[in-house]
Write a sequence for this structure.
């Protein structure tokens, strides 16, 4: 599958916390730094996410904000 | 300002393309890799975004997806 | 690529309108009905979107609202 | 109420799972196929969502991605 | 139509700027303050948005961030 | 930090409900009216959100919809 969302950053799963409906997935970016994803628990289970697993963090361009430090 | 969105990645502006309403900002992440942001043209102008400027890429956790490569 | 966003609806491109930064893509769902996507022009070009092309409409679960008619 | 979000697909509720804060609502589209929505539990309760209920799935155009299969 | 998005703030249109694909709509909240919406140009035209028109600003709860000033 | 998201409304926290992964934060806008935010529980804890706390509600322009009442 080739996706319109161009923002695809290589990462590995650092931590997964499961709620009843949502799951919080902490990702360690290959380039350094962390990214937190809140996805449905069903999706986290279907993808078999667990610490160490290599994944991509995907973000639609319209969801990225820019800030001055 | 301290923001609930924890995802804040250091980056520098690589390219800005202005449309009538929206602007596309290509960011070069400090850790490597690119991220594209689609924000309003007004915001891009207000922040004075131009190539080389150091910024943060900010993303709300609920907007991050995870994919298996 | 296997994506956490489970919402993937088969569709065909009905119309593409290019702006300077964004593109509007009208999709005809295989099951009937239309869906409009606003993606970056760069993504629309990279995917080679044009009328008749078979695609998937992809939506993250946290972006879907529910309404009573 | 007439909404700027043009993407409104007729559906019926197939399943609702309640968490403490969020609810996962599985929708069966009238045209075929499923769509999963993650909305607040409060909203799911306020709308009285339960299996069989006829609803609309609503998505803002900027939230729809396009993928090549 | 009753919508799962509970966030519906009374406002009036202050300004509309049309691009090829997107429109920027500046809203003046009844309670004071401004809110900027980026919606498709088609939606802005279909709703007949123009200065002075009374509308609702609608936001899904998962899209609202919180910041400390 | 100066953010591209121009939509920043002064508010005070009215209620916080914690789930395992997500938190629902009810905000009372300074100008009147309520806004509900669904953010990660981690962010709600990190910001020390509790009733009475003065905050900003922040929303990206691409996430704001417009409706006719």
């Amino acid at each position: 599958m080739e996706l319109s969302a161009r923002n695809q950053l290589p990462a590995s799963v650092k931590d997964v916390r499961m709620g009843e409906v949502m799951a919080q997935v902490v990702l360690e970016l290959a380039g350094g730094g962390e990214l937190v994803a809140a996805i449905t628990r069903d999706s986290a289970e279907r993808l078999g996410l667990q610490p160490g697993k290599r994944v991509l963090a995907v973000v639609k361009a319209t969801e990225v904000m820019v800030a001055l430090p």
Q: What stands out?
A: Chain C touches chain D at residues 5-10, 13, 24-25, 27, 29-39, 43-44, 47, 49, 54-69 (CB under 8 Å). The first helix of chain C runs from residue 41 to 46. The radius of gyration of chain C is 13 Å.
